[in-house]
Amino acid sequence: MAHTDRRTMRRVLRREIAGTIGLLTDEHDFRAMRRYRSFTFGDHTLYLQEVEALLRARAAQGNHTTVALFDPEKYAEFCAETGLDPDIPSSRTRFTAELAATGPTVPYEGQPLADLLPVLVDEGIRKATWEYATTLLSRLGACATCGEDIGRATFTRASDLIARILDTAPPGNRHLVCSVSGPPEALVSVLHADDNTDGATQLDEAEALAFATVLAVGLATHSPGGLVMRTSAPDGPDRIYGWRLRGYGLDPLTAGEVFDAYCTDIESGDLISPESNVDYCEPPDLGQKKDGPTPGHHH
């Protein structure tokens, strides 16, 4: 009887252990891992099928699994820094455990792997963009005039602008895109804001953090860029409007400028037919101060 109770307890404990699987999302990364003899898979498609089968089996047993983006280059760096042999499975396990805490991850909730893969890749891009933008802000240092940390002050400014944009937006689901031109590299960030049943705005905190950081980089460096909002409601047409980054703030785009941006082919310059049931319009007034914290002074 005691042995039966112990087996039952062990089964219960196994169900309460959260697991993480490091996933090689594309063929290029898969080929990079094949240089290790202990990595025995020879076909990426078969590898993905086996991963999906394992995820389903764990879910059927009541086990929660997180899928992490496995980067072979970062894995090699991790092994070099920790003195681990990269060609043994336990090293990959150690690295995957590290990813569970710090890397791009997506919870497996029974969705097809084909649906999970693009979400995981997008999460990896978002995290890399945020890390890069954060580094750029941290290098700006202190303002020569007031001594304030430029990166921190501009991040606060960007967060305030985003809050005003959401507060002045019409009800519905909102999709924001912020793009900042280089040098050294162009940055693009996306933010989704949906209304819940109580009418309150729901945001993903990590997504909002990355979005505010990218906008802050554009404001702090006075780089060319723009921010576009698309709102969707069930009882009317979608509305699209936006701003260009200008100095320490945002300048509204005219309805014609928004229309031209969406209805012109970037490469050829040819006109594209506008979407049906979409209004291209001017944005609401944000009531912003464009000169920064004090008159005549901006970072």
Structure description:
This protein has 299 residues and is of the alpha+beta class. The protein contains 9 helices and 10 strands. Strands 4, 5, 6, 7, 8, 9 and 10 form a 7-stranded mixed β-sheet that branches. The protein is globular, with a radius of gyration of 24 Å.
Q: List the secondary-structure elements in sequence, H or E.
A: HEHHEHHEHHEEEHEEEHE
- Strand content is 15-25%
Radius of gyration: 24 Å
What best-fitting shape do the alpha-carbon axes yield?
globular
Overall number of strands: 10
| N-to-C span | 73 Å
**Percent range of helical residues:** 40-55%
The biggest beta sheet, please? 7 strands, mixed
Tally of helical runs: 9
Overall pLDDT level: 86
Could you give the topology of this structure?
Elements: H1 2-15, E1 19-23, H2 27-33, H3 44-60, E2 65-69, H4 72-82, H5 89-102, E3 105-107, H6 113-138, H7 150-168, E4 173-180, E5 187-195, E6 201-203, H8 205-221, E7 225-232, E8 238-246, E9 249-252, H9 255-262, E10 278-280
For this entry, give a set of tags.
299 residues; alpha+beta; seven-stranded mixed sheet; three-stranded mixed sheet; 9 helices
